[in-house]
Fold RNase H type-1 domain-containing protein.
Amino acid sequence: MMNHVSTNWPGMVVLLQNYKPKIFSLAVTWKPLHGEMLKCNTDGASRRNLSKSSYFYCLRIHKRDLIIAKGEEIHETTNNEAEATVIKEASYHWVSIILNKVILENDHLVTVPIISRVWEIAWKNSTIIGDINALAQLCQVRIQHIVIEGNSLAYYIASIPFERAG
């Protein structure tokens, strides 16, 4: 419908009066985990490439109880590296306290398929991705993408340094 936009004002008014936008909705709900699984939500953030960066992750047990939440500013880097770094740091944490059934959720559309070996590593973070895959071999881990709305705690806290910076 929008392909034939009128160039005169009355024609545009008629077009807009008859326009019916398509509405998209997505319900995001928390689902309790089964058994002894733990859920780790991660988010890395970079204001722009090679700029101030940070990350945050939180680890919860199946009843929603928080085990740990950790975030920090990191060196100036790209968003891809910030996302990979947070997954690596979270992986170090759960391996160090001997947790072996973890669902890791991240909202980054590039990092998750690379770690899951759906895509090839085509960027400089191959060392970080290799470390993540090595850590993942030490426990039963499922790495999956989550929409940003389902990752709101990690997203919010990872973004705090940018709000303070203005």
Remarks:
- Residues 44 and 55 are 4 Å apart (CA to CA).
- The first strand starts at residue 38 and ends at 46.
- Helices lie at 9-18, 79-96, 111-115, 126-136, 152-165.
